[in-house]
Amino acid sequence: MTPPEKEKGRRRLKESFENYRRKRALRKMQHGSRQGEVDWENTTGSDNTDTEGS
Q1: Quick one: where's region Disordered (predicted)?
Q2: Nearest to 49 by CA among 31, 23, 30
């Protein structure tokens, strides 16, 4: 017995989360194509990951 308002809020949250994931994936693809696949694979330990989370 959940109120419709709660359901709507949860759905909106999921939508924004999906959108966020899609944006992140897109940015990752752009990073990979710009630096080169192998190069990007090796930058997991560099300060590159610090800027990704902000």
Answers
A1: 1-54
A2: 31
